[in-house]
Amino acid sequence: MSSERIPVLMYHRVGDAHNMWERKYCISPQRFAEHMRALMQSNWQAVSVDDFMAWRHGNKTLPKKAFLISFDDGFKGVYEHAWPVLRQYHWPAVMFLVSNLIGQKDAWSKNENPEGRTYSLLNRAEIAEMAQGGFSFHGHSRNHRDLTTLNETDLIDETEGCKAELNLLGIPCRYFAYPYGRFSEREMSAVKAAGFEAAFSVQPGFNRPDVDMFHIRRLDIFGTDTSAMLLRKITLGSNDGRLTAWAKYYLKQLQSRLGLG
Questions:
Q1: d(C-alpha 92, C-alpha 89), whole Å
Q2: pLDDT confidence bin for 142, thresholds 50/70/90
Q3: Distance of alpha carbon 45 from alpha carbon 247, whole angstroms
Q4: Is the distance from CB of 138 to CB of 49 less than 8 angstroms?
Q5: Domains of the chain, start order
């Protein structure tokens, strides 16, 4: 049976977390491995971003439990910890890079992290190696700035400049992920004008064949999510992986079948 709705998982950094802020956006290597094992054992099957796009355009049939794995920002920890796990399952993934900071650190987090910590981002050699082993790379702006706060000149620099920089590095950059997930019609238009073919948001939910190409939904996976919470999120298409959300969903399903909803 083919899939009629595809969830996209969104991870960020993989490594050690040192405070509560980091634990939201950073998942430990052990927990990431547990997540992937739980998905595999539940018969979920990861697909590439290009297969996802072919499905969206009606050119490819995907398994009923197909899903897409995405990573934002380009942290080195994905190379060190997540990629080896994904290779074990022969699972592809997509990563969205901050083009002006390749080989540097996540400078944008310095003022957000309570301890002012920053972490290493992938360098060109690591990106090239991963590209040969199941990863595809696309754009996440030049400097990870909130696009909704920028004037027109800076907005063009963060979108067109990102695509140009990645192309110069030999990375065929076709898709975009909005920094912080923030965008309006203005930012969406700028991403389109920059030549991107699609863009990923942070709005939760399933993606169906008619999903807006510049408003693709993703599920936020936190470092505090257990494997059980992850499976509830991907099954419900929700950022709420609590048991209560699961119960409410099935109660609603039961009420609908009984004609009570």
A1: 9
A2: very high
A3: 25
A4: yes
A5: 8-257 (3.20.20.370)
